[in-house]
Amino acid sequence: MAVDSPARTLGVSDASQLRTKTLPTWSPWAVAVAAIAVSFVLIKLTGAGGFVLTGVVAAVLFVLFMGLAATIVEGGRSARNRMATVLIYGTFILALLPLLSVVWVLISKGSARLDGDFFNASMNNIGPFDSNGGAYHAIIGTLEQAGIATLITVPLGILGAVYIVEYGRGWLAGAIRFFVDVMTGIPSIVAGLFILSFWVFTITPLYSSDGHPHYSGLAAGLALSVLMLPTVVRSSEEMLRLVPTALREGSYALGVPKWKTITSIVLPTAGPGIVTGVMLAVARACGETAPVLLVAGGADAINFNLFDGNQSSLSLFVYQQAGVASEFAPGRTWTAALTLVVLVLALTVAAKLLARRNKLAR
Description:
By secondary structure, this protein is mainly alpha-helical. The chain has 16 helices and no strands.
Protein backbone atom coordinates (compact mmCIF):
# COMPACT_ATOMS: atom_id res chain seq x y z
CA MET A 1 0.00 0.00 0.00
CA ALA A 2 1.40 3.37 -0.97
CA VAL A 3 2.21 5.79 1.79
CA ASP A 4 1.47 9.45 1.26
CA SER A 5 4.47 11.72 1.43
CA PRO A 6 4.54 14.62 3.91
CA ALA A 7 4.02 17.02 1.02
CA ARG A 8 0.77 15.25 0.01
CA THR A 9 -0.42 15.02 3.59
CA LEU A 10 0.23 18.65 4.49
CA GLY A 11 -0.31 20.19 1.10
CA VAL A 12 2.13 22.04 -1.10
CA SER A 13 1.85 25.32 0.77
CA ASP A 14 2.37 23.63 4.14
CA ALA A 15 5.36 21.62 2.81
CA SER A 16 7.05 24.80 1.64
CA GLN A 17 6.93 26.07 5.20
CA LEU A 18 8.99 23.09 6.36
CA ARG A 19 12.00 24.27 4.37
CA THR A 20 14.26 26.64 6.31
CA LYS A 21 15.74 29.69 4.64
CA THR A 22 19.49 29.55 4.09
CA LEU A 23 22.05 32.02 2.82
CA PRO A 24 23.31 31.36 -0.71
CA THR A 25 26.68 29.67 -1.13
CA TRP A 26 28.28 32.86 -2.44
CA SER A 27 27.25 34.90 0.60
CA PRO A 28 30.50 34.40 2.63
CA TRP A 29 32.55 35.74 -0.29
CA ALA A 30 30.26 38.73 -0.69
CA VAL A 31 30.39 39.45 3.03
CA ALA A 32 34.19 39.12 2.98
CA VAL A 33 34.49 41.64 0.12
CA ALA A 34 32.16 44.04 1.96
CA ALA A 35 34.12 43.67 5.20
CA ILE A 36 37.43 44.35 3.42
CA ALA A 37 36.00 47.40 1.66
CA VAL A 38 34.52 48.88 4.85
CA SER A 39 37.74 48.17 6.77
CA PHE A 40 39.87 49.81 4.08
CA VAL A 41 37.70 52.91 4.06
CA LEU A 42 37.70 53.18 7.86
CA ILE A 43 41.48 52.79 8.17
CA LYS A 44 42.09 55.14 5.25
CA LEU A 45 39.87 57.88 6.66
CA THR A 46 41.17 57.63 10.21
CA GLY A 47 44.81 56.96 9.30
CA ALA A 48 45.03 54.62 12.28
CA GLY A 49 47.25 51.98 10.72
CA GLY A 50 48.31 50.06 7.67
CA PHE A 51 47.83 46.71 5.99
CA VAL A 52 47.94 44.60 9.16
CA LEU A 53 45.32 46.65 11.02
CA THR A 54 43.13 46.66 7.92
CA GLY A 55 43.19 42.86 7.86
CA VAL A 56 42.38 42.62 11.58
CA VAL A 57 39.44 45.03 11.31
CA ALA A 58 38.20 43.23 8.19
CA ALA A 59 38.23 39.90 10.02
CA VAL A 60 36.22 41.33 12.92
CA LEU A 61 33.74 42.97 10.55
CA PHE A 62 33.39 39.72 8.58
CA VAL A 63 32.35 37.84 11.73
CA LEU A 64 29.87 40.56 12.70
CA PHE A 65 28.38 40.94 9.21
CA MET A 66 28.14 37.19 8.73
CA GLY A 67 26.40 36.76 12.07
CA LEU A 68 24.00 39.61 11.32
CA ALA A 69 23.12 38.25 7.87
CA ALA A 70 22.61 34.72 9.22
CA THR A 71 20.40 36.03 12.03
CA ILE A 72 18.16 37.93 9.62
CA VAL A 73 17.82 35.15 7.05
CA GLU A 74 18.31 31.86 8.93
CA GLY A 75 17.49 32.63 12.53
CA GLY A 76 19.41 32.75 15.80
CA ARG A 77 20.43 29.09 16.06
CA SER A 78 21.85 28.91 12.55
CA ALA A 79 23.58 32.25 13.07
CA ARG A 80 25.37 30.97 16.16
CA ASN A 81 26.42 27.86 14.26
CA ARG A 82 27.79 29.95 11.38
CA MET A 83 29.68 32.27 13.74
CA ALA A 84 31.23 29.30 15.54
CA THR A 85 32.30 27.85 12.18
CA VAL A 86 33.79 31.16 11.12
CA LEU A 87 35.70 31.49 14.40
CA ILE A 88 37.09 27.95 14.05
CA TYR A 89 38.32 28.58 10.51
CA GLY A 90 39.60 31.99 11.56
CA THR A 91 41.68 30.64 14.43
CA PHE A 92 43.10 27.98 12.12
CA ILE A 93 44.16 30.63 9.61
CA LEU A 94 45.50 32.81 12.42
CA ALA A 95 47.64 29.93 13.70
CA LEU A 96 48.81 29.14 10.16
CA LEU A 97 49.90 32.69 9.31
CA PRO A 98 53.08 32.76 11.49
CA LEU A 99 54.17 29.42 10.07
CA LEU A 100 53.63 30.58 6.50
CA SER A 101 55.42 33.84 7.30
CA VAL A 102 58.45 31.99 8.67
CA VAL A 103 58.54 29.66 5.66
CA TRP A 104 58.28 32.58 3.25
CA VAL A 105 61.06 34.55 4.94
CA LEU A 106 63.35 31.49 5.12
CA ILE A 107 62.84 30.63 1.45
CA SER A 108 63.07 34.21 0.16
CA LYS A 109 66.18 35.14 2.15
CA GLY A 110 67.76 31.69 2.48
CA SER A 111 67.96 31.13 -1.27
CA ALA A 112 70.71 33.74 -1.56
CA ARG A 113 73.52 31.23 -0.92
CA LEU A 114 71.99 27.99 -2.16
CA ASP A 115 75.06 27.04 -4.16
CA GLY A 116 77.61 24.28 -4.24
CA ASP A 117 80.24 26.29 -2.39
CA PHE A 118 77.99 26.73 0.64
CA PHE A 119 77.51 22.97 1.05
CA ASN A 120 81.07 21.92 0.18
CA ALA A 121 83.24 24.48 1.97
CA SER A 122 83.81 25.67 5.51
CA MET A 123 84.58 29.07 6.99
CA ASN A 124 88.25 28.26 7.48
CA ASN A 125 90.45 31.22 6.37
CA ILE A 126 87.36 33.17 5.28
CA GLY A 127 87.55 36.87 6.14
CA PRO A 128 84.77 39.47 6.46
CA PHE A 129 85.39 40.69 2.89
CA ASP A 130 85.22 37.22 1.31
CA SER A 131 81.93 36.34 -0.35
CA ASN A 132 82.56 32.60 -0.44
CA GLY A 133 82.64 30.16 2.47
CA GLY A 134 79.98 27.73 3.58
CA ALA A 135 78.48 25.62 6.34
CA TYR A 136 79.81 22.17 5.47
CA HIS A 137 81.60 21.92 8.83
CA ALA A 138 78.42 22.98 10.66
CA ILE A 139 76.28 20.43 8.83
CA ILE A 140 78.73 17.65 9.76
CA GLY A 141 78.72 18.81 13.38
CA THR A 142 74.91 18.92 13.58
CA LEU A 143 74.53 15.43 12.14
CA GLU A 144 77.16 13.92 14.44
CA GLN A 145 76.01 15.67 17.61
CA ALA A 146 72.31 15.03 17.04
CA GLY A 147 73.11 11.44 16.04
CA ILE A 148 75.06 10.61 19.21
CA ALA A 149 72.42 12.35 21.34
CA THR A 150 69.68 10.30 19.67
CA LEU A 151 71.58 7.04 20.14
CA ILE A 152 71.94 7.80 23.85
CA THR A 153 68.51 9.24 24.51
CA VAL A 154 66.08 7.05 22.58
CA PRO A 155 66.87 3.72 24.34
CA LEU A 156 67.00 5.37 27.77
CA GLY A 157 63.83 7.38 27.20
CA ILE A 158 61.76 4.49 25.85
CA LEU A 159 62.97 2.10 28.57
CA GLY A 160 62.15 4.70 31.20
CA ALA A 161 58.66 5.17 29.77
CA VAL A 162 58.12 1.40 29.64
CA TYR A 163 59.11 1.10 33.29
CA ILE A 164 56.77 3.91 34.35
CA VAL A 165 53.76 2.56 32.43
CA GLU A 166 54.21 -1.22 32.59
CA TYR A 167 56.25 -1.95 35.72
CA GLY A 168 56.50 1.15 37.88
CA ARG A 169 54.47 1.18 41.07
CA GLY A 170 54.72 3.25 44.22
CA TRP A 171 57.14 6.00 45.12
CA LEU A 172 59.91 5.12 42.66
CA ALA A 173 57.74 5.57 39.56
CA GLY A 174 56.36 8.81 41.00
CA ALA A 175 59.88 10.07 41.73
CA ILE A 176 61.04 9.28 38.19
CA ARG A 177 58.02 11.05 36.71
CA PHE A 178 58.63 14.05 38.97
CA PHE A 179 62.30 14.41 38.04
CA VAL A 180 61.47 14.01 34.36
CA ASP A 181 59.02 16.90 34.71
CA VAL A 182 61.71 18.95 36.43
CA MET A 183 64.21 18.19 33.66
CA THR A 184 61.71 19.38 31.07
CA GLY A 185 62.09 22.94 32.35
CA ILE A 186 65.89 22.93 32.62
CA PRO A 187 67.42 25.77 30.54
CA SER A 188 69.79 24.61 27.84
CA ILE A 189 72.66 26.62 29.33
CA VAL A 190 72.37 24.59 32.55
CA ALA A 191 72.69 21.32 30.62
CA GLY A 192 75.78 22.73 28.91
CA LEU A 193 77.31 23.79 32.21
CA PHE A 194 76.64 20.34 33.68
CA ILE A 195 78.46 18.54 30.84
CA LEU A 196 81.21 21.18 30.90
CA SER A 197 81.95 20.58 34.59
CA PHE A 198 81.39 16.81 34.59
CA TRP A 199 82.71 15.62 31.23
CA VAL A 200 85.03 18.30 29.86
CA PHE A 201 86.75 19.36 33.10
CA THR A 202 86.59 16.04 34.99
CA ILE A 203 86.51 13.10 32.57
CA THR A 204 88.49 14.24 29.52
CA PRO A 205 91.70 15.01 31.46
CA LEU A 206 91.73 11.38 32.65
CA TYR A 207 92.07 9.86 29.16
CA SER A 208 93.74 12.68 27.21
CA SER A 209 97.45 12.36 26.52
CA ASP A 210 98.31 15.83 27.85
CA GLY A 211 96.04 15.68 30.89
CA HIS A 212 94.13 18.82 29.88
CA PRO A 213 90.40 19.29 29.27
CA HIS A 214 89.29 18.94 25.65
CA TYR A 215 86.23 20.20 23.82
CA SER A 216 84.54 17.71 21.52
CA GLY A 217 81.41 16.96 19.56
CA LEU A 218 80.76 14.06 21.93
CA ALA A 219 80.43 16.51 24.82
CA ALA A 220 77.90 18.49 22.77
CA GLY A 221 75.97 15.29 22.09
CA LEU A 222 75.89 14.50 25.81
CA ALA A 223 74.57 17.98 26.60
CA LEU A 224 71.90 17.63 23.92
CA SER A 225 70.90 14.21 25.27
CA VAL A 226 70.20 15.82 28.66
CA LEU A 227 67.75 18.15 26.91
CA MET A 228 66.18 15.42 24.75
CA LEU A 229 65.64 12.84 27.49
CA PRO A 230 62.58 14.34 29.26
CA THR A 231 60.79 14.96 25.95
CA VAL A 232 61.33 11.37 24.82
CA VAL A 233 60.27 9.92 28.19
CA ARG A 234 57.07 11.95 28.52
CA SER A 235 55.95 11.55 24.91
CA SER A 236 56.66 7.81 24.98
CA GLU A 237 54.82 7.47 28.29
CA GLU A 238 51.71 9.16 26.92
CA MET A 239 51.75 7.03 23.78
CA LEU A 240 52.12 3.81 25.78
CA ARG A 241 49.16 4.76 27.96
CA LEU A 242 47.03 5.15 24.82
CA VAL A 243 47.55 1.50 23.85
CA PRO A 244 44.27 -0.33 24.63
CA THR A 245 44.41 -2.62 27.63
CA ALA A 246 42.52 -5.25 25.63
CA LEU A 247 45.59 -5.81 23.46
CA ARG A 248 47.68 -6.59 26.50
CA GLU A 249 45.03 -8.84 28.05
CA GLY A 250 44.55 -10.74 24.79
CA SER A 251 48.27 -11.38 24.58
CA TYR A 252 48.44 -12.52 28.21
CA ALA A 253 45.43 -14.83 27.61
CA LEU A 254 47.39 -16.57 24.86
CA GLY A 255 50.23 -17.24 27.28
CA VAL A 256 52.64 -14.61 25.89
CA PRO A 257 55.11 -13.33 28.54
CA LYS A 258 54.90 -9.71 29.59
CA TRP A 259 58.25 -8.70 28.12
CA LYS A 260 57.31 -10.17 24.75
CA THR A 261 53.88 -8.51 24.88
CA ILE A 262 55.59 -5.17 25.38
CA THR A 263 58.12 -5.67 22.58
CA SER A 264 55.74 -7.29 20.08
CA ILE A 265 52.39 -5.61 20.81
CA VAL A 266 52.65 -2.48 22.94
CA LEU A 267 55.72 -0.80 21.44
CA PRO A 268 54.78 -1.40 17.77
CA THR A 269 51.27 -0.07 18.41
CA ALA A 270 52.61 3.07 20.08
CA GLY A 271 55.44 3.35 17.54
CA PRO A 272 54.17 6.29 15.41
CA GLY A 273 53.51 8.43 18.49
CA ILE A 274 56.89 7.56 19.96
CA VAL A 275 58.58 8.48 16.68
CA THR A 276 56.82 11.85 16.74
CA GLY A 277 58.07 12.53 20.25
CA VAL A 278 61.61 11.51 19.31
CA MET A 279 61.61 13.82 16.30
CA LEU A 280 60.39 16.71 18.45
CA ALA A 281 63.32 16.08 20.75
CA VAL A 282 65.73 15.85 17.80
CA ALA A 283 64.40 19.13 16.40
CA ARG A 284 65.00 20.84 19.73
CA ALA A 285 68.51 19.40 19.94
CA CYS A 286 69.40 20.55 16.44
CA GLY A 287 68.32 24.09 17.28
CA GLU A 288 70.28 24.48 20.54
CA THR A 289 73.23 26.88 20.53
CA ALA A 290 74.39 27.46 24.11
CA PRO A 291 75.37 23.84 24.97
CA VAL A 292 77.34 23.45 21.74
CA LEU A 293 79.15 26.73 22.33
CA LEU A 294 80.04 25.75 25.90
CA VAL A 295 81.31 22.20 25.42
CA ALA A 296 82.26 22.01 21.72
CA GLY A 297 83.66 25.51 21.39
CA GLY A 298 82.76 26.00 17.77
CA ALA A 299 85.19 25.88 14.87
CA ASP A 300 85.55 27.31 11.39
CA ALA A 301 87.31 24.24 10.02
CA ILE A 302 85.91 20.80 9.24
CA ASN A 303 86.29 18.29 12.07
CA PHE A 304 85.00 14.76 11.54
CA ASN A 305 86.43 13.56 14.85
CA LEU A 306 83.53 13.35 17.28
CA PHE A 307 85.76 12.61 20.27
CA ASP A 308 88.36 15.37 20.12
CA GLY A 309 88.64 18.92 18.87
CA ASN A 310 86.33 21.88 18.55
CA GLN A 311 83.24 21.37 16.44
CA SER A 312 80.48 23.65 15.18
CA SER A 313 76.78 23.13 14.40
CA LEU A 314 74.23 24.83 12.18
CA SER A 315 72.56 26.65 15.07
CA LEU A 316 75.94 27.88 16.32
CA PHE A 317 76.90 28.85 12.77
CA VAL A 318 73.73 30.94 12.48
CA TYR A 319 74.47 32.63 15.81
CA GLN A 320 78.06 33.43 14.85
CA GLN A 321 77.27 34.69 11.36
CA ALA A 322 74.45 36.87 12.67
CA GLY A 323 77.02 38.79 14.72
CA VAL A 324 79.62 39.19 11.98
CA ALA A 325 80.02 42.71 10.59
CA SER A 326 80.10 41.70 6.95
CA GLU A 327 77.78 42.30 4.02
CA PHE A 328 78.04 38.59 3.11
CA ALA A 329 77.18 37.24 6.56
CA PRO A 330 73.36 37.69 6.39
CA GLY A 331 73.16 35.49 3.29
CA ARG A 332 75.09 32.72 5.02
CA THR A 333 72.91 33.13 8.13
CA TRP A 334 69.59 32.74 6.33
CA THR A 335 70.80 29.89 4.14
CA ALA A 336 72.09 28.02 7.19
CA ALA A 337 68.73 28.54 8.94
CA LEU A 338 66.91 27.22 5.87
CA THR A 339 69.27 24.24 5.73
CA LEU A 340 68.60 23.45 9.38
CA VAL A 341 64.82 23.52 8.87
CA VAL A 342 65.03 21.35 5.75
CA LEU A 343 67.32 18.89 7.55
CA VAL A 344 64.90 18.48 10.47
CA LEU A 345 61.98 18.19 8.03
CA ALA A 346 63.76 15.49 6.04
CA LEU A 347 64.56 13.50 9.19
CA THR A 348 60.96 13.79 10.37
CA VAL A 349 59.53 12.63 7.05
CA ALA A 350 61.98 9.71 6.91
CA ALA A 351 61.09 8.65 10.46
CA LYS A 352 57.36 8.87 9.70
CA LEU A 353 57.75 6.74 6.58
CA LEU A 354 59.64 4.10 8.54
CA ALA A 355 56.97 4.11 11.25
CA ARG A 356 54.20 3.62 8.67
CA ARG A 357 55.71 0.30 7.62
CA ASN A 358 54.56 -1.20 10.91
CA LYS A 359 51.31 -3.16 10.28
CA LEU A 360 50.12 -2.88 13.88
CA ALA A 361 50.31 0.92 13.71
CA ARG A 362 48.01 1.19 10.69
